[in-house]
């Protein structure tokens, strides 16, 4: 995919080690797509709009800071649907507000709006996140809603989320059980 660079060598974190083998299939565990910039993130969101690319392996290889000159949070486009592996490598995505053109379709909003199948996230840090609490039904710091098996390893969401209609929403530090509207620090809700 255009803008998704492939590195070489080994990227180490405290928990997960990702070794890149450029001769392996692109997007595989051995040769993941590497996200090095905000432009790469935008390309990643576009690339995963195709179902075949939602099951691939991706690695965040740099901190992404969306702070604006006036001190406000910048807007990051969310991944609509994902069922692959995402290694954060201990990097941060910070000073962001989420936006998704598919949030209403998925009834979910997060860095990843909706996950299906078997999905894995590791070593990812979200800081200073501003989420509009009334945007959609299920809101999470990393995942809005999951309809599959999902694993989080060493992920952090350091943020304040506000539910604008708390009478109809369940709030949780981690996750809520669907079908109820849920606001969760890591995940909004799971089936």
Structural class: mainly beta
DSSP, total strands: 19
Order of helices and strands: EEEHEEEEEHEEEEEEEEEEE
Radius of gyration computed on alpha carbons? 16 Å
Number of helices: 2
**End-to-end span in angstroms?**
32 Å
- Described by the principal axes of the CA atoms, the overall outline is globular
Which regions are unreliable across 5 or more consecutive residues at pLDDT < 50? 1-9
In this structure, how is the largest beta sheet organized? 8 strands, parallel
How much strand? over 45%
What's the mean pLDDT score? 79
Q: How is this structure best described in words?
A:
Helix content is 7%, strand content 45%. With 191 residues, the chain is mainly β. Strands 3, 4, 5, 6, 8, 11, 14 and 15 form an 8-stranded parallel sheet that branches. The longest helix has 10 residues, at 38-47. The chain is globular and about 45 Å long.
Descriptors:
2 helices; mainly beta; globular; 8-stranded parallel β-sheet; 5-stranded parallel β-sheet; 191 residues; disordered N terminus
